[in-house]
């Protein structure tokens, strides 16, 4: 688990790195740490998965990706991990999870999120996932988002 | 530059959705790889953040590996109560995202809490505040989170 200094570091950079030539040194100076220590900590946090990645976080809407569809699939429990790995590996799938069903309303156990500039684009992506899953699909649906009601980033405390 | 990303902006966004180097001069390393100038890369990223094309530039954290918890949830909200319920969720700090979707389960939201135990408490708080049953869809397995999009 990250230690207190890691948490201070993450709290300091979660809203963004300083956009300067030496961003890690700038963070280190702000926290009273050594730049090499900051870099070593970030390497460890990346390796452990606490930091998923470092880079640009695009605003999908501002890039024109105004359509998103939560595609959901009912596949046999014995098949879900194999199929989930295959669906998750598609380059246009941004998230892919196994989740519990909520019967009778909700028979689906595999969720894959797709984005697009047009409604047709997300329909095409759904169709491509359907082709990949093939006969293993017992039921499926796609829930396009019709409105963002709330969006705040996840934040950790210091 | 305008608020619409140009070809070079798009190239930068596509190249930089992860893998930002942890070296003393990371923007110089990126610039070298793309045949650009260090200060131009910094300036373009700063502009993209300023105009909101990038939400931010930096680390993306995994809340669960930092001790927190997240859970996808859904509600079947009667049409006449939809706006009122959305307003209730907007005021609950544990609700990180909320989307309207076309389905009997028409409101889909993510609960994010500092501890795993907080999720159940937050779900019950939503139920108490709305009088509706929260369908909980905790992640059982994550296959891959690409999260990258083509700019």
TrEMBL record, chain A:
Pathway per its UniProt entry is:
Porphyrin-containing compound metabolism
| Top class in the EC scheme | lyase
Q: Which GO terms describe its molecular function?
A: lyase activity
What Pfam family does this protein match (any one)? NirdL-like_HTH
Q: Known InterPro entries for this protein?
A: AsnC_trans_reg2 (IPR040523), HTH-Siroheme_Decarb (IPR050684), NirdL-like_HTH (IPR053953), Tscrpt_reg_AsnC-like (IPR019888), WH_DNA-bd_sf (IPR036390)
Q: What Gene3D superfamilies does UniProt report for this protein, alphabetically?
A: 3.30.70.3460
Reactions that this protein is recorded to catalyse: siroheme + 2 H(+) = 12,18-didecarboxysiroheme + 2 CO2
Keywords assigned by UniProt, alphabetized: Lyase
Task: Indicate the segments forming the Siroheme decarboxylase AsnC-like ligand binding domain, all copies.
Answer: 62-150
Ranges for the Siroheme decarboxylase NirL-like HTH domain? Answer: 6-52
Does the record carry Plastid as a key word?
no
- Give the EC number: 4.1.1.111
Q: Which family, according to the similarity comment? A: Belongs to the Ahb/Nir family.
Record's protein name: siroheme decarboxylase
From TrEMBL, chain B:
Siroheme decarboxylase AsnC-like ligand binding domain span: 70-143
Locate the Siroheme decarboxylase NirL-like HTH domain: which residues? 9-54
Keyword Lyase listed? The answer is yes
Full protein name: siroheme decarboxylase
Q: InterPro entries, from UniProt?
A: AsnC_trans_reg2, HTH-Siroheme_Decarb, NirdL-like_HTH, WH-like_DNA-bd_sf
Could you tell me which Pfam families the record lists for this protein?
AsnC_trans_reg2, NirdL-like_HTH
Q: What is its EC number?
A: 4.1.1.111
Q: What are the protein's UniProt keywords? A: Lyase
Lineage, highest ranks first: Bacteria, Pseudomonadati, Pseudomonadota, Alphaproteobacteria, Hyphomicrobiales
Keyword Acyltransferase found: no
What's the top EC group for this one?
A: lyase
What family is it from? Belongs to the Ahb/Nir family.
Q: In which pathway does it act?
A: Porphyrin-containing compound metabolism
The terms under GO molecular function for this entry are: lyase activity
Give me the reactions it catalyses.
Answer: siroheme + 2 H(+) = 12,18-didecarboxysiroheme + 2 CO2
